[in-house]
Amino acid sequence: MPVPDQRDPALTREILGRWLEGRSPGAVVEHLETPSASGFSAETLIFRAGGADYVAKVAPTGHQIFPEPRFEEQYRVLRELRRRGLPVPEVFWYEPDPSLLGAPFFVMAACPGRAPSDMPTYHQEGWVTEVSPRERASLWDNGLRAMASVHAQPVAGLEYVDQTSYGPTGLEQRLNYYEHYLHWAYEGKVPVAEEALAWLRANRPEESGPPSLLWGDSRIGNLLFVDGEVSAILDWEMVTLGQPEEDLAWYRYLDRHHYTAVGLPPLEGFPAREQTIARYEELLGRPMENLRYYEVLSGLKFAVVMARIGQLFVEYELVPPDDAFPHTNTATSLLATVLEEL
Q1: CA distance 53 to 118
Q2: Residues 153 and 283 in one domain
C-alpha cells in the first residue's frame, strides 16, 4: 500500500553517494529512483552504482505498519539465508544511523525477475493472466517449493526471530501478538477481527511438531520469477517461528483474497485448496494439521493489517476520519465468510 513520497531525489542521491564511497571506494551513484509512492512496511530506493543495481530498504518511521518493525532482524535473516543458499537477495550493508536517510537502512542487490501484482491483482490483469494455465500451475508449485525450502531450514542460529515477549513459541504467542497489534493498529473497533480472535482462543489446537522458520508473508506476490523459476523470496517483515501450516494457510488465503476481492474466479491453472494441501504434504513429508484453524488465523492477521493501513489512510488524509475502510474492507469481508464456513 502506498504513502506519498516526500523525499528529495537529488539530496538523497548525494547522501547515499557519500555513504557508499566509504564502503565501496570509487562507486558513484549514477541513477536513483524514489518511487512516487512507497510502501507502508518499508521505503524502497532503487539505485545504480559502479555498474550494478541496488535496492536500499529504509525502515518505516511515522508510517509503520507493524508495532515493532524488527528492521535489523530482516537484514540478519537475509544474510543468514543467503549464506545457506536460499534464493533471497544478497545484502551488503546495514546502516543503523538514522541521521542519513531519516531511519536505519540496508542495501541489497537488485534481483532479476518479476512478481505477480497485488494492485491490480494477478487474477485480474498483468503478466500472470497472459501465461498458460500450465505455466500458472508451475508458478504456484515453484512457490510452494520455495516455501518448503524455508521450512526445511534448521532453526539454530535464527532463534532471535522468535517473539518471546508475547509468549512461548507458537499459537499462544501469535494470538497474544495479534491481540496487541489489533488494539495498537486502529483507534476504533474491528468487530469481525474480535470475533475471530475469540474463536481462535476457544479452539486453539495443540501444535505437535517442532517449530520451523516461518517466512511470514508467504505469498506468490512476494516471489520473483525468471522463466517460471523462483529467483528471489522477498519481504521478511513477518518472519518468526511456528508451524509450517501457518505459512501454507497464508499462501492460500492471500490468493483467495486476490480473486474474491475483485469478484472473479481463480485463474485457470491455480490448484484447488485440496490439491495444494496434498502437494505441500508431499513436499514436507507429513500431513498438514488444523488447516481450517490456520485459515481463520490468516483472516485475523490480514484484517488487522488492513485496519492499520486504514488508520494510516486516515492519518495521511487519504480518506475522511469517519471512513469505514479500517473496519469494513475486502479483508474483513473474506474473514466473515471464512467464519461462516466453520
Answers
A1: 24
A2: yes
Please state, in angstroms and rounded to a whole number, the distance separating the CA atoms of residues 313 and 329. 13
> Quick one: pLDDT at residue 1?
42
Question: Which of 29-38, 164-173, 220-229, 310-319 bottoms out in mean pLDDT, i.e. has the lowest?
Answer: 29-38
Q: Please, is 168 exposed, middle or buried when counting C-beta atoms within 10 Å of its C-beta (0-12, 13-18, 19+)? A: exposed
Are 324 and 297 contained in the same domain?
yes
pLDDT at 45 over 70: yes
Cα 197 from Cα 336, distance rounded (Å): 12
267, 136 Cβ separation under 8 angstroms: yes
Whether the pTM exceeds 0.85: the reply is yes
Say how many Å lie between the first and final Cα of the chain, rounded: 30
CATH number of the domain to which 51 belongs = 3.30.200.20
User: How many angstroms separate the Cα of 117 from the Cα of each of 41, 65, 231, 304, 324?
Assistant: 17, 20, 16, 22, 25
> In sequence order, what DSSP letters do the residues of 202-233 get, joined into one string?
HTPPP--SPPEEE-SS--GGGEEEETTEEEEE
**What is each CA distance from 253 to 195, 232, 248, 311, in whole angstroms?**
18, 21, 9, 23
Strand pairing class (212-214; 240-242): antiparallel
- If asked whether residues 282 and 216 sit together in one domain, one would say yes
- The C-alpha atoms of residue 204 and residue 216 are separated, in whole angstroms, by 19
Same domain, residue pair 82 and 155: no
Distance CA 213, CA 336 (A): 29
pLDDT 10s digits, 61-93: 777 899 988 999 999 999 999 999 999 999 999
Return d(Cα 283, Cα 277) in angstroms, integer. Answer: 10
Residues 102 and 207 grouped into a single domain: no
Q: Mean pLDDT over residues 113-117, rounded?
A: 97
Residues 6 or more apart whose CB falls under 8 angstroms from that of 125 comprise 117
The boundaries of the domain holding residue 84 are: 2-109
pLDDT tens string 187-199? 999 999 999 999 9
In one letter, which amino acid is 278?
A
